[in-house]
């Protein structure tokens, strides 16, 4: 019996991130991060979205399209464990999976019913790269999707840490107020790979059509050293 089937994108996600580097490692951790969902021509119909404005959150089912190779390992290194300790791929949210499928909960900010691309969803808190294909959208239902007392495995012991961020005014002025607020929140989460701990290295991160270069000082402070177009 052959249970394989072909998924086709129904939409594409658009965000300030042109590459994987710097994208929040989970949806919702940067709640102000804005993005849009633009539908493919076959689904640019208001009937496909009838009633969606009544939901505050949506589930996006999407593809890890930027992964250059197939996943071959059943053990992965979650960033919250420092990038060195291994757990099973199905006990993690690693992007390197047998089927490269992602799942994100995003806040529905508004529906733009009329645009040159048909209806467009404006969402907040996404963790998707610009151009990510989306396979399905489902409403988030608090009465069944939220489990406030649930255990969270190894993440219960490895909470996200936030660093201080220093960005000189000359660099801040390169962004809108909304972009600046979002960028500061992203940098505070330390975008470096978990296994990188060098304070002397300068990292570059594409954001909002600019290249943001930064370094981490003493493991506690992120300093922006340049912003280039």
UniProtKB/TrEMBL annotation:
It comes from the Bacteria. The keyword Transferase applies. One of its GO terms (biological process) is methylation. Residues 7-149 form the TsaA-like domain. Keywords: Methyltransferase, S-adenosyl-L-methionine, Transferase. The keyword S-adenosyl-L-methionine applies. Transmembrane segments: none annotated. GO terms for molecular function: methyltransferase activity. Belongs to the tRNA methyltransferase O family. This is Methyltransferase, YaeB family.
């Amino acid at each position: 019996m052959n249970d394989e089937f072909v998924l086709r994108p129904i939409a594409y996600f658009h965000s300030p991130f042109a590459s994987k580097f710097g994208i929040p490692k989970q949806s919702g951790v940067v709640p102000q991060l804005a993005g849009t969902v633009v539908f493919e021509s076959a689904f640019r119909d208001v009937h496909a979205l009838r009633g969606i404005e009544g939901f505050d959150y949506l589930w996006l089912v999407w593809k890890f399209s930027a992964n250059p190779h197939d996943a071959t390992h059943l053990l992965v290194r979650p960033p919250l464990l420092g990038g060195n300790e291994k757990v099973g791929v199905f006990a993690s949210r690693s992007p390197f999976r047998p089927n490269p499928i992602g799942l994100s909960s995003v806040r529905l900010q508004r529906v733009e019913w009329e645009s040159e691309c048909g209806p467009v969803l404006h969402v907040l808190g996404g963790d998707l790269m610009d151009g990510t294909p989306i396979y399905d959208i489902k409403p988030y239902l608090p009465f069944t999707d939220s489990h406030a007392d649930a255990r969270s495995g190894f993440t219960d012991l490895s909470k996200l840490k936030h660093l201080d961020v220093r960005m000189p005014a000359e660099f801040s002025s390169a962004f809108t107020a909304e972009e600046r607020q979002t960028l500061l929140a992203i940098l505070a989460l330390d975008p470096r790979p978990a296994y990188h701990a060098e304070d002397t290295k300068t990292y570059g991160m594409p954001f909002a059509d600019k290249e943001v270069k930064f370094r981490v000082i003493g493991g506690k402070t992120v300093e922006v050293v340049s912003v280039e177009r």
